[in-house]
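Late entry, written up from scratch paper. The run itself happened at the end of the previous shift, but nothing got recorded in the book at the time, so transcribing now.
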Amino acid sequence: MIANHVEGVLDLSAVVTEPTQNILLVHNGAVQFVRQDLDTLRRSHRVTECFLRSRRINPFTIWQQVRAHDLVFGWFASWHTFLPLLFARLLNKPSVLIVGGYDVANMPQIGYGHQRGGIKKWVSRWTMRCATQVVSTSDYSNRETTVNASIPKTRVRTVYVGVPDPFGSLPQEPRSRTVLTVGNVDRSNLQRKGHEPFVRTAALMPDVNFVLVGNWKDDAIAYLRSIATANVTFTGRVSDEELLDHYRNASVYVQASLHEGFGLSVAEAMLAGCVPVVNRVGSLPEVVGDTGIYIESPDPMETSKAIETALASPEAARASIRQRILDEFPMEKREELLEQLIRPLLNGAH
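Output as recorded:
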């Protein structure tokens, strides 16, 4: 495989069997769900990966890239997808835009979401308007897209994120009295991901281990350490295999978020048999269904009671928790739905 760097555009096209049309996949960070879609599309198409790290891009290069491809596929409506989707529209090329996070959120109370106003709101909305098809990662994000960003319901379709199963079966090792949460540690996530209430809950449960796995992005880690009790562990960034070990070891997974576009970490923990304790917000009820324990707010006292209930769950419950993710969010389902969506567009139905 040969990687060609052309003014901010990275071509990592893989060898596929009898490739058909050319797709330009645009993103601003190769996180797991982006990499999964990249791999999925490369099974049937020639795909050029366009990784735009900043707003400083060469419009002429982007124009050339869009013109050389049959379809533009973008992740999130923001600066990095604005020009590619605008150029696709001007060139009468079909485009697919995946939304479902900061781009469609409007939560001024925690300082989160492009739809709060200003230039980011304008850019994200026009990016969505330029797309031939807008795809949300959950029904909740679908509603955010139509309500917050004023995109017509007829132009937004929900296709859930696929969740690969790295475990194969439920872990057989005995589980410790450990409560886990996963997410980047930064000031935004103190409330949005519920990291602060997670740490404060630990003070009410001194006989339970609390583990927060996630990269330390700013001085939020210093604040969390200042309020943490001895039963809290901050791992920092870990390898993929280390993360799987944390899932295998934990009895309970807590997601006391105030906003979730999908909740991939929750789903991964459920595959490992962790009992989910989640805030009843965003897409979390869609992921957890009736297999978890809900809290109505991230209040530490309420959360601690929910964790105690989860710790007392019978082992047999873990099989149904795992099975829900296998049934509802298999990779094959997303692959099939994306191909059903993309194929007509490539064949001129736009």
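Residues 1-18 have pLDDT under 50 and may be disordered.
(Scratch paper discarded after transcription.)
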